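A common beginner's mistake is to predict each chain separately and then try to dock the pieces by hand. The better habit, illustrated here, is to supply every component at once so that their relative placement is modeled jointly.
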Amino acid sequence: MTMAMASMKGENVTVSAAAAPRMKKLASMLCMKGGNGDGSYLNNSQAQALHARRMLHFLEETLDAMMERSSSDKLFTAADLGCSCGSNSLFIVDVIVRRVSEAYESRGRDAPEFQVFFSDLPSNDFNTLFQLLPPLLAPVAGSLEECLAAGEGAATATRPYHAAGVPGTFYGRLFPGESIDVFTSTFSLHWLSQVPEEVGDSASPAYNGGRVFVHRATEAVAAAYKRQFQADLARFLRSRAREMKRGGAMFLACLGRSSGDPADQGGAGLLFGTHFQDAWDDLVQEGVVEGEKRDSFNIPVYAPSLQEFRDVVRADGAFAIDRLELVRGGSPLVVDRPDDAAEVGRAMANSCKAVAGVLVDAHIGERRGAQLFERLERRAARHARELVEKMHFFHVVCSLSLAP
Amino acid sequence: MTMAMASMKGENVTVSAAAAPRMKKLASMLCMKGGNGDGSYLNNSQAQALHARRMLHFLEETLDAMMERSSSDKLFTAADLGCSCGSNSLFIVDVIVRRVSEAYESRGRDAPEFQVFFSDLPSNDFNTLFQLLPPLLAPVAGSLEECLAAGEGAATATRPYHAAGVPGTFYGRLFPGESIDVFTSTFSLHWLSQVPEEVGDSASPAYNGGRVFVHRATEAVAAAYKRQFQADLARFLRSRAREMKRGGAMFLACLGRSSGDPADQGGAGLLFGTHFQDAWDDLVQEGVVEGEKRDSFNIPVYAPSLQEFRDVVRADGAFAIDRLELVRGGSPLVVDRPDDAAEVGRAMANSCKAVAGVLVDAHIGERRGAQLFERLERRAARHARELVEKMHFFHVVCSLSLAP
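With all components supplied together, the output reads:
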């Protein structure tokens, strides 16, 4: 089981803060198999598998509760928000289709037709996603059940659902009113819709001069990031509440943090707020990048605490919280030999690049971007042992249903 | 008003017969404006504009008749099949949304929410299409009407509908049952799902040895092409009948021919069955391409007669024919100076390349493909006057509704 960050860059990516490739973590773990054997990775892969199974269990629990509540329509619609280019999204959709079909079957009803929407920003590489889709299962009577009964192999060889791609931001409306039975969004909601304006405004007390992320920033900066996250999540919930069918459900997972302090971003802080920060400072001191250039760069990511997340859901009021937990996840660093400092350094640079490379290149160009990640690699290698020990993510995992 | 073929090649095109870029004609005329003044094009642009307006009128008539029949739901769904990378499709969708909104308004009802599906093969460049989409109009009460009232400029600046891309072949199922109000497909249905098998089988009496298109081919070849077209259209209609909502409608336009003889393909015949054919023969005689290589290449396009089209719709039986006409269209050749033989030759080669270039390159490679189109350009230049006079398309235009 690999710990890889699954973010991919499309060929035609239009660069903007909101268009950055998504951080993907659990989802990629969930659908990857094999690897180089137990203990070959930085963290214990068995512990990882446990976490992954636990989160998958949450999703299934969400679906089961929904099937208890809802009537059995002839059409079941699902939407995965922040689908990226695909394989993780396809795995989650397979879980949904299988579980819902089983629920229909256990009530002695014919399985519904499924329609699945894969949504992401217009800059996402939908072409790759669409070419990953297996061919549609011929809608012959009984064949859906046969396919599901045949297990995973068959389920990925054909596709027992109608598929569609939906370009747009999930911080606004994406679907007609009351049209979706189940929403999922895994590892996208920690991406803010934008860097908070005050944070880039040198006249503001929340100006994040000198720093490139909220981690270890001032109280005013931290408050601005928190406000942005909560405003974005509120807009997300307001749109979904309009789009969800009566009896529908939503499964959300995103980066989270265990600390109450917004300026202590945990794993995300270690990723963007320490050696990555120092690498920027290196470039400024070497005269490669001007100080103002660094000051105007900020990573639009925020790992919320459970409380911050819960407050937004409650204030919105449209959804009941069926489950809300902070789950300890793994490390984004993929290494075969955790004792090899050079390899750890490379893994750290690669992880950062996979997530923030597009943003960095758009801000200072590819050439200086490459220099930045070289500095990062060198610095991370010098702190390899500490990174191996301390680098891991927490995830907010949340199951919601429309409040009665 | 330009006569350009609007086919575009996506960057990640997976080549297969069915994945060839679509022939686009009317749709591009409909949404193009300006040009280099009256009479600057090969054909009289005013006559073209008349044809275009007439076909647009058919679409509006189809919509009006549908609005008479159907109840006013809160959600109106449209699907454009064979959307290619977009601008033509976006224009047609704008017409639909505007017309349907006006119909609701004239009955004193609130405009519905619109959901529009853009469908094409998985190899289509959906990324380009999605980046052409204007941003979603904020669903504020009254703003849809304001937008529509503001006319074309506003309608293209924002998007008063939810959009989704659907990858798949329209010769099979694409959507859930009874989920679409109106289908459109413009200039795609003349693409066969495949070259008829017999045509590529040297042991068959319908083997098309020596030729690369059905035009001027043997009776057996012509019959095989005709069978393939009719079988494909039947599969198209069967799927749409399942997917269309009660009271729904369908507007179809594709290449057609005025001759009763399937081996006389009219404009398509002139495009693929004369100088293009001779250019292949040149390469064979020069030893650049082996005879068998040419013999195994066939263009999977078929321009049906009205009667052939009508027979399939009647045999299927699910749809009533509200209108079925053969409309004289324009020429695919874009030239500023019709007297300039070299320019006419270039235009002919470009038109052929835009439609069949991907297929040719997949069959004999890019280098020899370029040689083929060079020969074509030279030959077409020698027959420039004849091409200017005789090259024009006919279009089958068809409006269908679910039979009661």
